[in-house]
Prior knowledge:
4 domains, TIM Barrel, 19% strand, 18 helices
Amino acid sequence: MVDFRSPPVNPTGNVSNSRKVSQLTIDDDNQESTMITNPAQKYRRFEPIQLTDRQWPNATLDKAPIWMSTDLRDGNQALIDPMSVDTKLRYFDELVKIGFKEIEVGFPSASETDFNVVRRLIEENRIPDDVTIEVLTQAREDLIARTVASLKGARRVILHMYNPISPTFREVVYKSDKAGVKAIAERGTRWVKEMTAAQPETEWVYQYSPEVFSSTEVEFAKEVCDAVSAVWQPTPEHKMILNLPATVEMSTPNTYADQIEWMHRNLNNRDSIILSVHPHNDRGTAVAAAELAVMAGADRVEGCLFGNGERTGNVDLVTLALNLYSQGINPELDFSHIDQIRQMYEETTQLPVHPRHPYAGELVFTAFSGSHQDAIKKGFAVQTNAIYWQVPYLPIDPADLNRSYDAVVRVNSQSGKGGVSFLLQQAAGFELPRRLQIEFSKIVQKVSDETSKEVNSSNIVSLFESSYLQVAAPYNYMSSHVIDEETSNVITKIVANYDEQRIELHGQGNGPLDAAAKAISQHLGVTVTVADYHEHGMSAGSDAAAVSYVEVKVGDNDTVFGVGQDKNITTAAIKALINGVNRLLIGHAPELATAKQEAVS
Ligand SMILES: CC(=O)SCCNC(=O)CCNC(=O)[C@H](O)C(C)(C)COP(=O)(O)OP(=O)(O)OC[C@H]1O[C@@H](n2cnc3c(N)ncnc32)[C@H](O)[C@@H]1OP(=O)(O)O
Ligand SMILES: CC(C)C(=O)C(=O)O
């Protein structure tokens, strides 16, 4: 049972065993399968047309089609709460900003709202010179008259008339035959011709749609379309639009492409026709259907942002356009501000965009899993010198859509060292050596596992700082001094607090760090050695201009890393050494506990 508005009502007054999941009410008492074991008893296979010499599989997409946004008509008519006049005007302005040149603004004979939208667009001079509005009407005289009246004063208009012609509509809705529905189309076109001729100040473009083209015999669709164009009399200079809708998507996209190619090759006066498609998404393949239809000869595509529209929606124009973009083709639509466009869409339609929606969903440029993050991190590292975009797992650069890189990698228990170190580098500039990446990612993963939560960039930075930089015991570093730094006989003096006592340590070695390790060795009575050492500068303006990563070994213990920051690179290294020793002496547990607290809060 589908319940769009109200909570489930139980007429007996008993507590019903049902629950709401999103807008569906699930009845837990009734879980028997309702699907039939042999669907062939109920559903017939869609019979593809015979087109053995099809050409479209060899075609490629190399330019953008003419786009037509039907957000304000097909999209709007499918909303729970259709848009108000002001909302439609706001949406119209956004469509213009994106770059649409043809925009279907409504069905003016159907409602006062749609009539008034058209009036305000015209009277308030809101339609840019390079944009043409489109309106829809049925093939009924009174509706056409009202439609034409709504357009008084318009500079240029696409007047779009439709009537259903498919076998089911002929039999079920019109109780008519082929001749009957063809006559409706011809008669309607004559009315449009006469009434628009009476308003010559407007440049009229006529569009005809044989509704449910997708399930109509192609020979009959051609017959009706040819009859309509014979009435309208388009020319190569003044073309008309024939729009072939997959009103309901009935077949695999290759079959739709065959239907379109057949029409493209057989329609009369093809050079006077703009061939348009209007794919719906009932089978979830509208994007593929539109792409193959363009390969098959269509010049124009009608659809909606984010695939809004009746039932499963119209074809998604954002995906279509950005698919072209990802192939190096200018889509002639600008989705630079995809997040703002998505926000506008969600506010005006009251429909959410799925987080995994191609290009626009919140999560589509985000990798959680370790191997993906590792590949993305490596991809970004080489991208700076590359001509072509080649970051693995990201078909286009998120920055082109103003999506930030911060969101590209997100860390949870599925993540590995690549993601953790990528975020740390992005957020705080630390470029961890490989073994430290492995060591630190285990700390992060432990926190994520224990909390079952995502660990965000700022959690990671504070986890890193508390684990590696804020380790002030048992040695609390105060200062250091290096003598004869340029020779191989260096002396390092370290001043620190140890057990609340000020101590001074001295060591001699073949470099400042070696000497510092000797100084601590002597104090601890255990050998302290430096197993590995890395350093890099931090970004300009930082107080701690240098950072050192020192891998320390104390006695027979496993090595651990210490990290130190300072304006002076030698001091940073000595601090790193002391932090490493401290970490080993106190064990890792305390900082994990603190870090876990921070990640949860
Ligand atoms: C696939 C699509 O998306 S098509 C667009 C669909 N969009 C809409 O319908 C939204 C706006 N529509 C409306 O508000 C209403 O349908 C109106 C105001 C236009 C018309 O309302 P009503 O006059 O009450 O008629 P209704 O829509 O129920 O139409 C049914 C009648 O129109 C006929 N009809 C339906 N479509 C068409 C058409 N395209 N051309 C000619 N006649 C048509 C039907 O056969 C039926 O005739 P009958 O009354 O003789 O049986
Ligand atoms: C009016 C037509 C083009 C339509 O919306 C459809 O068939 O889906």
